[in-house]
Predict the structure.
Amino acid sequence: MNLAVNDPSHDPRCPSRRRFVRAAALAAGAITLGFSRRAMAAARAVVRDTRIISLDPQYYHGWPTLARRKAGELLVVCSGGREQHVCPFGRVELMVSRDDGATWGWPQVVLDSAGDDRDAGVLETAHGSLLITTFTSLAYEPILRAAEAKNPGSAGAWPPERLRCWQLAHNRLTPEQRQANLGCWMIRSTD
């Protein structure tokens, strides 16, 4: 899979996330107004089942997005490899089902920056390219600071191995590099 990484936060031609969300909401509202109430009433989702599809259960997987390709494959992207809801380990994982969701392939890591990659999205363009989005976060920093402030062995103190892992992940980047790494990201595959 040929992937290119774009960072729209550094492109002055790229709209801000707020402008993009506002434009998308206006477009969705305009489209909705064009449908009759009968057509809208007929469009209902049917939940066939709910189950865990992760094949890597020791990790927390969050905020999945599902897309169906023109060829029928189902794609799920999520923030995987996580210890918990907020931690420094998030990465973007892709899973594929070729049998309408009955089974899923092993997750493929498609983006793992030195920061916490969160809230992945996926879609297939009209030309068949796959676009996967995410954003990076430092929301784990207050949790790490609180853990570092506890005395080893005291109530609520983390085991030394856990604290060391968080510190190593956090210190992959300098404070300046962590700030520069923040942003919304998109990877694109044309093949």
